[in-house]
Predict the structure.
Amino acid sequence: MSEYEDVVSSRYSYDEMKGIFSEHSITHTWRLCWIALAEAENELGLKQVTKEMIAEMKKHIDDIDFAAAKEKEKETQHDVMAHIYAYGLVCPKAKGIIHLGATAQCVKCNTDLILQHRALKIIRQDLIGLLNALYHLIQRTKHNPTLSYTHYQPAQPTTIGRRFCSYAQDYLADLKELYLIFEDYALRGAKGATGTQASYLELFGDAKKVKKLDLLFAKKLGFKKVFPITTQTYTRKFDIRIASLLASICSTSKKFATDIRLLSNQGILEEPFGKEQVGSSAMPYKRNPMKSEQLCSLCRKVINNLNDFYDVYSEQWLERTLDDSAIRRIDIPQNFMLTDYILRKTTGICEGMIVFEKQSEKLLMQELPFLITEQILMETVKKGASRQEMHEIIKKHCFECAKEIKEDGRENNLAQKLEADHRIPLDSDDFKRILSSRLFIGLSVEQADDFCKGQLEPVLKASKAKPGK
């Protein structure tokens, strides 16, 4: 290929989301806005706009001559005016009333909001699908003991399933924010050049009708709300809110993918690996967590894009400046395409996750003698020993054992050392009981069950009962 191809569209996206932001989809939605405006104007008594004109506009909504529009844009340097011209070519009766009273941002802003609303519905379904995959993964692994880590150092036992609960909880928070955005969703409406509706007041000469026009226009496009105050554009603060949601979703996925990479190094988990997949061109044995690595890279892009939206909002000079246009053309579609791709790939990893239970238990048992020292300390105090004295004795044994493991490659024999130290008032049965205890995972299983029943299951059931919003 001799031309540059957008890698997000060609490599990291799915057709449904790409279709939302396609040139045809954008132009079609512009025309929906022009039709909705004409219908609202007609219903509110504007005599210049007739039902015959509206019927013509509807009939030819998909007769889009992109070549003619591009040629006209070369002359006018204005994409909306070029498409008004192209629409007029196939709608000669309606030609004079297309875009009546509107400004370019009447179609552009409302279209951007409509397209993002459609895209958010896909993201919602992606999130629900991922939560469903996580639910089954939690159920499959909630009893499997494993090490937890703080500072990437062994901390306490937990279970693999309980760890997956933490990701599910954060995705639920993302889903909750998405629903809040849906509740607040509004269109720019029909507000004229700088938001004052002066052009419509000139047309109607009736303030009440102008106010009705705003909501009627939105209603015909499928929305119940309009922003009460706009400038030439709807507030770009709303774009920040949507972009923040997508960045938050990607930060959750990046955390998940990073942890999978860490655990795959330890041989505890492995993402799905195809039969013919190659991990390294030089090292045939390699089974790199390539999917998780890719996710981390793409998540970084969406997270870092967020700064563009803050810049756009804060640099909207007074009622508007054009320097928001180019970056939004790039960032909004790419953010949605990447987030859709990331969520679907994360779901695939969850559905095909390989869990090595024996390796997980092996690593846990290697560290368990260190992890039970607090339990041993408590048991010695129960038998009348001084906590401070026992702490010092146990600490010295721990440091000595750790040194032997690291420097000499010895097995962890801390338990034997502690049992052989006659200063520690515990017998062989005490040590066996402590070492064999499964209580070190605390309430891991119960917490996983409570989380699934109280948090995950209601959301998954509700999504099946109410598939659309």
